[in-house]
Amino acid sequence: MEKPLHFRSSCPRCGKYGIIQIVASSQENESFYLDKFHCDEWRGFDFGLFSVACYCAECKNYVSASVSVAHDEIKNATAKLVDFADDNNRIKLGPEIMIDFDVPTLLPPQHFSSPPIVSVSDIYNQARKCYSLQAWEAVGILCRKIVDIQSIFMWDTRYPGKPHPTTLAQRLEDLLVKGVKEKNKVERSELSDVLNFDSLKHRLFYDMDRIRESGNDAAHGLLAYHDDEAEAMLIFTQKFLDESESWMSSLRRARVKPAAGKEPKKDQVS
């Protein structure tokens, strides 16, 4: 039995990376967008040349996608999808071919508490899906919300039972760089210039404060929010989430009496 056409990608349903099988493909190979936009000799891709139905073996779901290939007026006029596969029937994504999934409906997060509490991982997944939709402002706003929520978890871990500052800017300052501004006699806007990036707390403050400011621009700014800003927000958010979890874990361990000769690292818990 001939191996079906397939490619490697992250499933838009379950998010797992692996082999995605193509179970059906459109027979006509005329780009849907060809008649919708003006094209000239500089045209790079034949967008939507094929429509395909795909199957993910991980989550047992089907999803449709659009196949775009590098523009070739002669070849693409008669080509079939199999012409873009290798000897193993694999379609290798890259500079010559793109496969874009039709974005599925955002599923509501699964809450396991009462009343339900938002999960930063759920919000981050929403931000990634918004990025795939090219909803750049939405990415910025969601990442800013992640900082707001995670900073409350961080505050409650470091100062159990103590009320946190209501404003995010003040919360981040009191939580991670308290006294640095006064010690160095600088304004709030100049704090990043005097940070010690060997300190985990200072790195966290820098990343989180940058996301806070960029998220404010996405929510309130008149200037357009661009794809590179949204991409940077996702990268900074993932980085700070990883480091904040490590920081909170260190604080929890520090409350447990350490074994003899094993003191917690000062940078992580101070």
Listing every helix as H and every strand as E from the N terminus to the C terminus, the arrangement reads: EEEEHEHHHHHHH
Biggest sheet: strand arrangement: 1-2-3-4-5
- Rg from Cα: 24 Å
- In whole angstroms, how far apart are the ends? 63 Å
The helix fraction, in percent, is 40-55%
Report the portion of residues in β strands: 15-25%
Count of separate DSSP helical elements: 8
Give the overall pLDDT as a whole number: 84
Shape: elongated
Q: What summary fits the major beta sheet?
A: 5 strands, antiparallel
Number of strands: 5
Structural class: alpha+beta
Any low-confidence stretches, pLDDT <50, length ≥5?
31-39
Task: Please render the helix and strand layout as text.
Blueprint: E1 6-10, E2 17-25, E3 45-56, E4 61-70, H1 75-78, E5 97-101, H2 120-132, H3 136-158, H4 168-176, H5 180-184, H6 200-220, H7 227-255, H8 266-269
Antiparallel strand pairs: 1-2, 2-3, 3-4, 4-5
Helix pairs in contact: 2-3, 2-7, 3-4, 3-6, 3-7, 4-6, 6-7
Written description of the protein model:
The chain is of the alpha+beta class. Helix content is 40%, strand content 15%. The chain is built from eight helices and five strands. Strands 1-2-3-4-5 form a five-stranded antiparallel sheet, with no helix packed on it. The radius of gyration is 24 Å and the shape is elongated. It starts with 5 loop residues before the first strand and ends with a helix.
Key features?
about 270 residues; alpha+beta; 5-stranded antiparallel β-sheet
Task: Please outline what is shown here.
With 270 residues, this protein is an alpha+beta fold.
